[in-house]
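Follow-up to my earlier ticket, as requested here are the two runs.
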Amino acid sequence: MPVLGRDRSGVLPCRVRLAPWAENVARSLHDEFGADVDLTVGFLHFPDRTPPHLSPGLRRPLRVVDPNRIGVSLARDLSVSSGHTVRGDLRVENHTGSRIEIRTNGQVTASVVDPATGSVVGGFAGAQALPLVVYTVQPGDQGTVPVLVGTASLVPDVGYAVPAGEWQIEAVLDLGGEKWRTPRLPLTVT
């Protein structure tokens, strides 16, 4: 029989974070260890699906980038299994007379959006490195910027993972310190 160790502070419960596809693993751990484990599956607490507390800054609405100045589209269609993560590329077209610089950590991270309501329903629930990587697009040119899409649910009624269906994504572009939202782009969750 496994023995549950104490966390670094020596105090139970131990915190365990699981991928959004690992609901069955969470159920097994909860059945075996009960209150000795504090489980999170994706973004939501297990077993009650309590959502995380988001700071007001994360919910601040941003303006959509002007397509007459900067065009944003997917370099290829994106499809991902529910509870998993996919990487793709955004195609960025510079219609301005100046160079644009997109500040990233090596990629932009997209949120999953309900196409009917425009509400954010999910995203990537893991850790990321934070180096500064700048992508530059010259006037009249186009470039690609990597995008990370996760399907961890933020909505308790949806479940721990965004379910199969046709969804949309949007990401924040940091254009030299000024933040803009991409247009909504299609995502298929299988």
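Run two:
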Amino acid sequence: MSEQYAGIKFKTIFNKTQTPVDTRIKELKKWCEIFHEKNLAPPYPGGSYGNLSFRTENNKNEFIITGTCIGFKNNLSDDCFVKIISCDIINNVIYAEGTRNPSSESMLHYAIYKKRPDVNAIFHGHSNEILQSAKTLGIPETAKEESYGTIELVNSVLSILKEHNFLCMKNHGFISLGKSMNEAGEPLLKII
């Protein structure tokens, strides 16, 4: 990953300032721990590089995602997660429920859920080994490097997304998709 984290690049409007409630948050916490243990979300001062989410209901683009600036190595509480209600990508606005700002890649997750109704979990992490092996492993990769948290990154991913469930963002990180959290996470464990 070439760009250092400098914060979110969108405005968040909170419809509710309360911690999201969903029994599946426990499973998401488990995957955050695995990402930390396997160095798929490397730590930085104040957080971890990566974000994980799951769709809350079929046929809706609402999802629960890790908040910004949370360390996956920590014992995460439910208030480390944010529910995204909708996104206005053109005006760079996220509508959310929670007590902290959502991940800087919330717009990317929203765009993928919107384009791929078959996807119910998105795991985004960072691994130089995976990025360096993308071509050898036949993993689709975006054409050029784009800055995190931007519409340019969203568009570059959407341009190669098609039916792929695993792809790399050039010089940035990887995205693994699945119908469930296990389906998004288990292929990563095989790759690494």
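The only thing I checked on run two: The first helix runs from residue 25 to 37. Let me know what else you need.
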